[in-house]
Specification:
Layout lengths: L3 H4 L8 H46 L9 H21 L2 H19 L5 H15 L2 H18 L9 H14 L12
Keywords: Coiled coil, DNA-binding, Nucleus, Transcription, Transcription regulation
InterPro entries: HLH_DNA-bd_sf (IPR036638), Max-like/E-box_TFs (IPR052207)
Protein name: MLXIPL
């Protein structure tokens, strides 16, 4: 039976008039429920349209090419990296060696990867990975970083004093920020 009120008592005989009456009540109930669902659907559709309009308005305010990376932003990133390296090197002197390996990768990432849009970020990140993070490229980068560490520090000539000199360098760099024109020399 389609009408639930009639299906509840299958053994009871119901007159045709009662059956018609219950069917009419059930049809009216379904019609009311359908109207309520349609009203809710209309309200949700209007809410979706309002949200889409708000999103569109926000997107219109964004620059067409994404947020530009200026040299000021690049310099700020460099300063943040230097501060982070100083802080971590003070906590663990081995981080200095890691920073010498990671800084060239950071610089290349910063110069190659574009955040102009999601597709651009994806494309340039993969290009950066393909060019700068291959095993041969990483071998070369590590070798160059180790050479730099050996040239700029006393790790080969005075390995026992290396840790102390790094901590002193970090203290000095906190007093005098490292800029392109003034960098404390060898450790």
């Amino acid at each position: 039976m389609i009408v639930p009120a009639l299906a509840n008592n299958p053994t009871t005989k119901v007159s045709k008039a009662a059956m018609l009456n219950k069917t009419a009540e059930f049809a009216q109930k379904l019609k009311t429920e359908r109207q309520e669902m349609q009203t809710e659907s209309d309200l949700l559709q209007k809410e979706i349209e309002a949200l889409n309009a708000a999103i569109g308005s926000c997107q219109q305010q964004l620059p067409a090419t994404g947020v530009p990376i200026t040299s000021q932003n690049n310099e700020q990133m460099q300063q943040m990296l230097r501060a982070y390296i100083q802080e971590r090197t003070t906590q663990n002197w081995k981080f200095y060696i890691f920073s010498k390996l990671a800084t060239p990768l950071f610089d290349s990432f910063n110069s190659v990867v574009s955040t102009a849009g999601t597709d651009e970020l994806y494309r340039t990140t993969h290009a950066w990975l393909d060019h700068h993070c291959t095993l041969p490229a990483l071998r070369t980068a590590v070798l160059n970083s180790l050479r730099t560490i050996c040239k700029e520090t006393s790790i080969l000539s005075e390995p026992r004093d290396f840790r102390k000199k790094l901590k002193a360098l970090c203290r000095l760099q906190r007093l005098v920020p490292a800029t392109p024109s003034h960098r404390p020399e060898s450790v």
